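[User] At your convenience, examine this fold.
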Amino acid sequence: MKKILTILAGIFFTVLMNSCGDFLEENPSSVVSEEQYYNTESDAITAINAVYFHLNTNKVQSPYNTLFNTGMNMAGDDEDPGPGATNADVRSLSVLSHSSSNLRVYELWQQHYAAIRKANVVLAKVPDITFTNEATKNRILGEAKFLRALFYFNLVRLYGGVPLIIEYQNYVSASDYAVPRNTSEEIYAQIEKDLTEAVDVLPDSYSSPDEGRATAGAAKALLAKVYLTEASLPLKLIANYQKALEKAEEVLSPTDGGSGNYSYDLFDDYSHVFLPAYKNGVEHIFSAQMNAVSGQGNSENPRAIYSSIPGLSGNYAHMVRFYTEGQDKFYNIYKIYKVSDKRRDVTFVTNFTSPSNGKQYGLAISNPVVAQDSTPFWHKWWDPDNTSVTGNSEANVTILRYAEVLLIHAEAENEVNGPTEKAYRSINKVRNRAGLSNLTAGLSKDAFRDSVYLERRLELSYEYQRWFDLIREKDANGHGILLTSLQKVGKTNVKDKHYLYPIPQTELDNNALLTQNPGW
């Protein structure tokens, strides 16, 4: 394996140099030996911050700061590489002609294992450090388990069974780093274990400067999502729908039919979910923290902005997928929203105002079916306070938020008990916030499921959820929707093999114990 976990000598320099977002300022440091480090409470905090760092750094493409888009969402049915996306690996992935040598396929693997490696170091070293408050030590260990679970959850959904590495590795021989693949079931079992243990030691909330760290509510919400995914394709562990339902209700507030004491709720205004002024608010359960001052601004923002606008930096690397629907050859995700849906004009804009001359700029479409049609541009990570340097956007990337827990609850309840009043209440709360009326009463189980799927697509658009939904969701006959969904938008290269990503060729070359996924 390209030393799945890069040689430990590099770990300690990285741990010392990297801190996470808004949490803490970096402590002055110099290169020290492994034996000299991991001695103090401050060392432990720096070490756990280094794990968070892998969520959102823009110094490289990290999962929640560009990499999920260029390495995953571009392959889906809502997004495409725009004119500014010139990377050949990105463009081949977007039409599903990529191979195991694709750079983004490798980076997804590498970035996740780099984070897991750091979490394992925390879990191995921090228990031996003396703390003035034992609860702080336990909290740090819980954060490491939560983050390790999150990264393994992404890996198992992308690649299937992967090497399960949960111990601190400090080997001399490179061959000792060769590890075979575990089964998906084994990976999920470890994810469940980590999250269950994290719930017991994580706090319900934090005060400044620690807002944004993992909480007990976040661990429960992620566990609900894990159970829902296990119950879905490809594992189809149907009994886990009940577990997802129960865990979601532990997160939902009593006013929404749950027993959660975390004070979560929806923002009244959908735009507040994404505006930096409201980050870490009532709806946010766990987010990748963006902080331009520490070099961790949201670099997705300029990639979605139309280029050549005076005073506004953008390269239009990310665009909607256009496809044919009826007579409209320029159909796209924007047009799936109802005009009355308040989410549409938060998720997209059709023009930008130049901060230099006040003029508006957009991109018209010559569409004989829709008069004055224009191109929609993704807009969720826009920061109104950073328009001159758009890459300094401090819009957090939402990883878990209350609206999704409501939709998890609605989906799981429908699978267990059918479209009950409980299921309707959860989906309708999401719809009503969007300005939509209650979902049609009396739907069948299949029709209600499709309604939840659509609501997820519209509510969570551009939040790195769509590809994962495409590979787990099913139609009324229990068949996966990936092939039909992508064929509908003209991505005809899609095959059954695309339910899993290929194991990166670099990893296969360096680890004789690894095997490739079927079809690759």
Strands lie at 79-81, 284-288, 318-320, 323-325, 328-331, 348-349, 351-353, 360-362, 377-378, 397-401. The chain is about 40% helix and 5% strand.
